[in-house]
Target: Ribokinase
Amino acid sequence: MTIWTLGSVNADLVFRVPHLPAPGETLAATDFSRGLGGKGANMSVAATRAGSRVEHIGAVGEDGGWMKDRLAGYGVSVTHLAEMRGPSGQAVIELDDEGENRIIILPGTNRRIDIMGFDEILSEAEEGDWALFQNETNGLLDFAQAAKARGLPLAHAAAPFDAEAVAPLLELLDLLVMNQVEAEQLQTATGLAPEALPVRDVVITLGAKGARWIGADGDRSFEAPKVRPVDTTGAGDTFTGYLVAGLEQGLAMAEAIELAQRAAAVMVTRMGTADVIPKRDEL
Model:
């Protein structure tokens, strides 16, 4: 079985700073690194390291060959990761000594994916496969409709939050993953509380406070593992990738959430994004 991920691929440019700068402040960074990132790439790597087979659908630019090679090296299929003219996605990440971050995104080729190819790509999908996507690419509704036409369970991470992008998708989703801020933003935009959304399963991540699952069996809370974070970048993507992988592998929702929480807890103890997502045997 396979998880078909429509998602961004970014070069993560990480600047370590003593604190997040205030408006107008010039601040000297204490370290710099370049790594593989993007919410889509992070989720694909996480799902792969959880033990699932992943087909990544997306695009990189002329400068993105190293990112495509690295994804392939991590075991993610890049058959449907196109190479285009222009810059790849870029993320400039400021990371402070407490593990908090601020991120600036250049979408690049992530917003130029050929949406006309979704039907053909997903025609390769089989029963038991899942489809997964988030808000850093174009073609969200087209992908959702193509996935549902194939009968695939559809999971969406509503990040970065965009009410206009998320609202048309709700009726098509089987699983919606959000953090607490995104859940509040969606409620403000739609007037619907999480328990009133037309989605079978809603999972809200609460950082160190754990997670909340709203499904057919009611509303359940999960306590987070206790760790000392050094970098929260990519933790939510790791959670989502592991969660969908667990479900694709046949775990019950509660088991999949607990697996995803362990992965995210390990992730925040590491510096970096896709390159340091933990493997399942590390949990």
About this structure: The first strand starts at residue 2 and ends at 6. The chain is about 30% helix and 25% strand. The domain at 2-273 is CATH 3.40.1190.20 (UDP-N-acetylmuramoyl-L-alanine:D-glutamate ligase).
